[in-house]
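User: I've been trying to design a sequence by hand for this structure and keep getting stuck. Would you show me what you'd pick, starting by listing the structure so we're on the same page?

Assistant: Good idea, let's start from the same input. This is the structure you sent:
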């Protein structure tokens, strides 16, 4: 029997390694599900969030790690979002919402291909999970689309962790 799914989301921007680990600990997260296509972050202040360093940080905190590339947007979709960011005059780190066309295509091209029933069971049966990407605000990131679909279709209780 699976338990009710409790799900967090978290981004990298706005955190440092210490506050990131503390936010996960405060939320009782036991598994980080990395939904990035490329698991690197530019800039020395976020070097801790690059894949191997992040995994070492999480292991030291007793938090499991899983990469779900099937939940990541394609390069083409990311380019669509970047073009909309340019049109609006915002940078990736200051974006506050997703482009409607990006969200529509992510839902139909990426998320529709994922077995959400299996994902919900997997996440509910394991340690409390958090979906990880880079954007500070979940509204500016595809992780919010995954979380919203899990809430709507599987009753997930979602908490967005922010710096």
């Amino acid at each position: 029997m699976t338990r009710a799914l409790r799900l967090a989301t978290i981004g990298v921007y706005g955190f440092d390694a210490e506050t990131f680990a503390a936010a996960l600990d405060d939320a009782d997260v036991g598994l980080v599900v990395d939904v990035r296509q490329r698991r690197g972050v530019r800039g020395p202040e976020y070097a801790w969030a690059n894949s191997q360093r992040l995994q070492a940080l999480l292991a030291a905190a007793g938090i499991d790690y899983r990469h779900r590339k099937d939940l990541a947007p394609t390069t083409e979709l990311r380019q669509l979002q970047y073009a909309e960011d340019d049109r609006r005059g915002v940078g990736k780190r200051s974006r506050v919402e997703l482009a409607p066309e990006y969200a529509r295509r992510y839902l139909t091209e990426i998320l529709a291909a994922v077995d959400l029933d299996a994902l919900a069971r997997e996440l509910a049966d394991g340690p409390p999970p958090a979906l990880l990407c880079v954007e500070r605000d979940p509204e500016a990131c595809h992780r919010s689309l995954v979380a919203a679909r899990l809430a709507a279709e599987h009753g997930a209780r979602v908490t967005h962790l922010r710096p």
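That's my pick for every position. To get oriented when you compare it with your attempt: The mean pLDDT is 94. Helices lie at 17-26, 51-60, 75-88, 100-110, 116-125, 143-154.
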